[in-house]
Design brief:
- This protein is an all-beta fold.
- A hairpin with a 7-residue loop joins β20 and β21.
């Protein structure tokens, strides 16, 4: 097996496998597009060449004698050695949707461990009006629009810090451009008091859901 990294050529002979192995491999990660993703791989003594692959393509190699050979500024590494062995930390900078997939740590064809990277996109979220006047016995529809997400976000509605029953709103999803997703959620209500309504959009990589609010001012028709 022949791997070429810029001006460095590494030839692996399957028969030349000794007593080294991967002690612990990378673990799955979910990150927002544009942020960093990090994966660790710890190998025992005796290794010579460690290869990192992204979706089957070698992106970084590390020689025990010469250190790392980088093929792209987005794929770099930090390395640590202790009593447990040698640890290579792959750092993927400015992650992109196309980085999603399998990330592999391979040691001279002797051992391979892999994990999966999920890169997600935090799109926009908006309710057209910031305030709305509502009359007594009036049925209102509030429209919340999420554009340019990956994956499609989970949509929920809240009022007075309580979730609104799902039967009160309908959410439609559509395919956007460049692998992104859109969502349109319509909330239908009859109000009896002034309320602040909040539309929430959530994906796994977000620490907190994105939100958009509208203040519905209730007007009693008898006044």
């Amino acid at each position: 097996v022949l791997y070429i990294f810029t001006n460095h050529v590494f030839l692996f002979l399957p028969g030349l496998v000794c007593c080294y192995s991967i002690i612990s491999g990378p673990t799955n990660a979910t990150v927002l597009a544009g942020s960093e993703a990090r994966f660790n791989c710890t190998v025992s003594d005796g290794w010579v060449i460690l290869i990192w692959l992204s979706n089957g393509n070698p992106v970084l190699s590390i020689s025990s004698s010469q250190g790392p050979f980088e093929t792209s500024g987005r794929f770099t590494s930090q390395n640590y050695t202790d009593s447990n062995g040698f640890t290579s930390e792959l750092i993927i900078r400015n992650t992109q949707l196309s980085d999603s997939g399998k990330v592999e740590c391979s040691v001279q064809q002797a051992d391979t461990r892999f994990a999966f990277l999920s890169v997600q996109v935090n799109g926009s979220l908006a309710i057209k009006n910031n305030t709305l006047t509502v009359k007594e016995n009036e049925t209102i529809e509030i429209v919340c629009e999420a554009l340019g997400w990956a994956p499609a976000p989970d949509i929920a509605w809240m009022t007075n810090d309580s979730f609104i029953d799902k039967s009160k709103y309908v959410t439609q999803y559509s395919q956007g451009s460049n692998g992104l997703h859109n969502a349109l959620s319509i909330l239908t209500l009859n109000l009896t008091d002034t309320e602040i309504l909040t539309c929430l959009a959530d994906i796994e990589a977000l620490p907190n859901p994105q939100n958009a609010t509208v203040t519905c001012i209730f007007v009693n028709s008898t006044l």
